[in-house]
Design goal:
heterodimer, A: mainly alpha, globular, B: mainly alpha, four-stranded mixed sheet, 6 strands
Amino acid sequence: MILTWLRAWRLWIVVLALSIQVTATTLWPSSAVSVPGREDVQAVIWPLSPVILGVALPMVLKQGYLDVRQVAAGWQRDRLELLAFISLASLFPVAAASEHEQLVLLRNTGLVIGLCLLATTFLPSAASWLPPTLGPMAMWLLGTHSLSPPDRWALLLQDRDEIVSRLVAGFLMIAGGTAYLTRRRRVRG
Amino acid sequence: MSGWTVSLRRSPGRHAAPVLFTVLIAQVLIRDRAWTYEWTWALYQLAFNTVLLSPIVAGLGAWEGARLADSSDYIGTCPRSWRVALSAWLGLILWTAVVYLVGVVVVALLVLARGTPFGPRLVDTLTILTAIGLMAAFGALGIGLGWLIRRRLAAAPLAAALTFCTTLWLYLAGPGQFVTVGGASGSLAGATPNTTIQWRQVAVFVGISITLLLLISRRTSWGVRGPVVLGLFSTLATTIAVVGLADAGQAVLVPYNEPVTCTGVKPQVCAVAGYARFGARAHDDLAPLIHALEAAKVSPIPLVFNQNASPGQVLVGPLQNRFLTGNTSDAALLVSAAYVDKRCFLQTRREDDVALFGLQWWLAGQVGGDRGNADLLPEKLTKGTPADQAAFIRDAVHTLVNCYQAP
């Protein structure tokens, strides 16, 4: 039953993405990535690991907007179950991380999931993959410096005590979750 | 309306053009714009944006490739079905190229607005060509990936993420010349893009694009003899181009003796076109230091400062763009840099460090600048008579000219 549900909603993609995330954060050599002029950037690679989930999520969340699911009687309950699974499953890489990383990973997971929910709800599906993919790329490439902390707008790279990024993460999760659970698109045909 | 026009109108590149343009312009306007004094630097720096734009183009290409894969049965029934993949790619790349060229115009306007004389060189055109070529190759890679994966929302973000990570990996571990088409954190006065690498990059990017499109076209052509010979020839040519680019080395920038305009005497200040108008001010900032060295009977003294010069040439001092454009506190640094060769291993031999800090401390004092910490310096310099100080400076210059170098 559960396996059928996982398959019907393509949740194996989420499971796969989270497994890759756990493997990557465990095996990632801490000095493997740097760019000329950004020597110390490797220190801020691991906070971006929830992006692996973000790359996969639009594909799964889009299932909620299929015509057949939108006309189903319990469409809101279906989406709520989907969100509950994604939220709970995404805690797995957070729990597997070291104590120092957990708060940052929790915040960033919330940021990424919220961003995906909003993008899937309000953007056409051809563009819904862009914010969770392009945003972190821009933050890492442009928001980092070799000798000073990341820019304030690079929310995913902020220190764990930074309050604004936490607030934004909370806002995105609540706004994205509300939008995804309440908004139905026009059914075609 | 022809098929080509339809491809152009319904290309994902058309809908993504505002996003691409926003990314490009945000980077140009938000980040430091010291490059506005140099045409080559400005256009080379713009090309750095391909690090972010190319993965997006790959993602869009993947979307297009998956869309083509959805219709492969219908496409396969058409005569000359290869034109479908080609027009999809062209549609994407034309929109991307338009966005990039508008970015070039914006950059050109910023450079002109700064008062830099008009003077882009042929090599700058090549920089634009390699940037568009890289995005074209990434677009073809994306189409190929989308064609294989067939699911649009899986292929697009995956293509973008994979190409982004690959780009950064190549920057880090090399061979960087396969993705480095621009980006310089400092002035390019005295340096220029390596045209050998640039031409080979163009060959590789064109080769990858054509080969991938031919491979996709072959898959669309059910029952029709695909362009096998052409495909094999293209693969071979691309392989040769890749080997050629790998063989060209990773020096994407090479030294260049750029024409300079010289101003004044003692010292003569020679700057490239974009900075020539600051020559007189730079002369006025450097002259008191040169006079002070003369008064202290130091020999030799740098009587010329040239933007093409390297540190340690002694008689010809280097010039920095920051100094020319108004950061006058660097004057003492530049004069002392004339004596310090790049090969000097500072922080190895104490007398080298004392000589350098002492010279800078003394020079800064001659023009009333911030001298900084004097803890390391001997009392002969910090509390001595002018004669003692002059003797120390003469010794310091001698020490620096004969600094410790790597064996």
